[in-house]
Amino acid sequence: GKSMVLFVYLSAVVPRLVFMLHTLLAVWRVTVVRENPMYWLLLLLILLTLVEMIVTLTIQKGKDYKGFSPALFFYLINIIPSVWLLELYQLDIRIHSSDCSTNSSNKCTHFVHSTDQISYNLSTEEQPVKRPENSSNSIDVVINFLNSTLDWNLSFHQTLLILLIIGKWILPMGVGVNRDQLSQLLLTFVGIAADILEFKSETLSEKEVRCHAELVYAILAIWTWSMLQFPLDLTVLQKTEGQRPHGNTSDRKAHLFKNSADLWNITISVLIQDGPFFIFRLFLMFHQGIVHQMLLFFTIKNALVLTLQFYRLTLIYLEMRQPCKEQQQTTTEVNVSTCATEMDDIVE
After folding, report:
1. What global pTM score does this model have?
2. What are the two backbone dihedrals, phi and then psi, of residue 68, each rounded to the nearest 5 degrees?
3. Interval 161-184: pLDDT, tens
4. What is d(CA 178, CA 236) in angstroms, rounded to the nearest whole number?
């Protein structure tokens, strides 16, 4: 009925509005710390979300696409530049502060080129926010309280992941997606979000890493790459019995069709998340000489996940070969039986 249609439209619009508000907050924070109003131009990226929302409401009637979520994809495009700018600002602050005053930071300072005039506060990583004298006292109190209690960068990372999960939950389901698949996808998202946040926080906790510009760039690049799996619906490719191909389909193709979701999950894990995380952590240990208990634990964890993924891939391959062998054996038995029958006829 009309109420159901209205609910679908609200489910499509409300999460996108929240995504835009979160982007607005991130851009505001960039303009505050960089002290450059030109960064407000980042809000032009919101136009992509607006266009996508109009197209989805008119063509898809608010429903998401199968296997891909443009709303989450454009949300990432909107906010990731602001997160990068905030992280690089923190890098500038650290390099010019006593936190990176040792020789280990000297090799990276020439890679950092600050494009803005920044007043550094050497006592803290966050620069105090300057407010006009005629600004509201209540606004001053709120902002000063947030500056003293919040780690803005970590907060944006955390809220970004939370909004991606809740947003996917509220957004209308894609065509051909049922609630069971959506619940599996959301549970997968929770695990992915925890791994990504842990990777960013744990690697940057090391002084040898957070004071090295090239390593910070690498962490942000891997973080950005890993975030791209959220717009993908990892469980949508899992077909039901009624969706299996009919007709003269080979057993190999039917088996690939059956295990398409597992193959997709293995590819995502190896290429987008656990693979890059594992390689970077090995680089930190063997090339940078950074070894500690937590880094070793998470490296072993990534290695175990990759091993299990390749083990699962091997099982799928062996299962694909088994029907072929059975088919060949059956064909041979039929041929032998046919030949025996023909010989009996000749003898008679």
Report:
1. 0.77
2. -155, 140
3. 999 999 999 988 776 677 888 888
4. 9
